[in-house]
Amino acid sequence: MIENLIEISKDELLGEVQKAKYEGYRFVTASCADTGTGIIDVTYHFDKDLALRNYRIKVGKEDEISSISGIYFCAVLVENEMKELFGLNIANIAIDYGGHMLLADVDFNAPLTRSQIVIEQRGGK
After folding, report:
1. Residue 84: left (phi > 0), alpha (psi -120 to 50), or beta?
2. Domains of the chain from N-terminus onward
3. Between these two residues, 117 and 113, which has the higher pLDDT value?
4. Are 64 and 43 in contact (CB under 8 A)?
5. Does 53 have pLDDT greater than 90?
6. What is the torsional sign of CA 88, 91, 97, 99?
7. DSSP code of residue 15
């Protein structure tokens, strides 16, 4: 359970992040969790005087979300990481590494997402 967790929509993200910056919060990081239902929970973590504020959005694997790097430039690294490791479609990252900040061409796409592996059984029962 995360304290001070505020559930918002992806459309509210930039407004809430801008408000946090205006109120003096610093961006700490963001984290992802693949729920296994086609939804990825993305939580943005902020701090002000050791008081945390956390915003969570629920993102469909095909949805596009806006980058917060225009507000907090330091989000560039974690947003590229989320894009590569979870396959999030994050638009307008200030520096977009195009899926190659951490992963090479031969690596799996979005290796931290849950996927179903279907094994076809041939012959026999």
Report:
1. alpha
2. 1-125 (3.30.460.80)
3. 113
4. no
5. yes
6. positive
7. H
d(CA 1, CA 50): 18
Nearby residues of 89 by Cβ (< 8 Å), 6 or more positions away = 62, 63, 64, 65, 83
pTM: 0.82
Secondary structure element (H or E) that encloses residue 19, with its range: helix 13-22
Q: Per-residue pLDDT tens for 72-115?
A: 999 999 999 999 888 899 999 999 887 666 555 655 565 556 55
User: Cβ neighbours of residue 9 under 8 Å, at least 6 residues apart?
Assistant: 57
Q: Which two tokens stand for residue 33?
A: 């969790």
In the predicted structure, residue 124 carries a pLDDT above the cut 60: no
Q: Which amino acid is at 5?
A: L
Distances (CA, A) of 22 to 39, 83, 116: 30, 27, 43
In contact, 80 and 68? CB cutoff 8 Å: no
pLDDT of residue 84: 86
